[in-house]
Design a protein that fits this description.
14% helix, 12 strands
């Protein structure tokens, strides 16, 4: 586990694509428990360790995850996320070049619980939720393109679904139309950076992941 930032109230870690943020039916150890164990050992904490989950990443997605270490920080971060005061930027690798090098996307998503999948529509339909993001092409390689995505809303599988809807499924994402999987079961989507005002100290926090692996192999535009 890579700790990117920590203080008395929050901790930010760089999640691998194989980890789940919270426990699920698989029974695999979630990232939240790994972080608790780290805090307990690193700070010699007796008894149970408090850790609040304020947002999640899909299991096959890598990148930054923010946790609250105190109840005060948890309450304030929950409010900040609800009011879109935490700015998250994602990097996505796609096979197809979008028609426009930079654009905003607005769709209405319908979630299918049984399939664990969302479907995008160009207009509002029953049971749909409005989904907004913007993207720009920032890199290219021999076979793929690198997009930077700014998420305006937080819908189920939003980036995966919206990019697939415009003909640009994310590399490795079989669920949304990629032609082949990645060898490690990941999809090529990373929570790359995070900017927000610290919920307690009020300092500006600006954290980003150092590009590694396939994300470091692009010629930046």
């Amino acid at each position: 586990m890579e700790v990117v930032y920590e203080d008395n109230h929050i901790i930010i870690v760089n999640k691998s694509s194989s980890e789940i943020v919270q426990g699920d039916k698989t029974g695999d150890t979630p990232l939240s428990e790994t972080v608790k164990a780290y805090i307990k050992e690193h700070y010699c904490k007796p008894g149970d360790v408090f850790l609040g989950v304020v947002h999640r990443l899909d299991r096959p997605v890598s990148g930054l995850v923010l946790f609250a270490r105190t109840s005060k920080a948890l309450a304030r971060l929950n409010k900040m996320f609800a009011e879109n005061q935490v700015h998250k930027t994602y990097w996505a690798i796609v096979k197809n070049l979008p028609e426009q090098p930079e654009a905003g996307l607005t769709h209405w998503l319908v979630r299918n619980e049984k399939q664990n999948k969302s479907y995008a529509y160009d207009r509002e339909v029953p049971h749909s939720k409005k989904a907004i993001l913007s993207y720009r092409v920032i890199g290219k390689s021999d076979n793929y393109y690198l997009l930077e995505v700014d998420l305006k809303t937080g819908r189920h599988h939003q980036i995966r679904c919206q990019l697939a809807h415009i003909g640009c499924p994310i590399k490795g994402d079989l669920k949304y139309g990629a032609k082949r999987s990645n060898p490690d079961g990941s999809i090529s989507l990373q929570a790359h950076s995070m900017q927000f005002i610290h919920p307690v100290s009020k300092e500006e926090i600006n954290i980003s992941v150092t590009p590694q692996g396939e994300f470091s192999m692009f010629e930046m535009i």
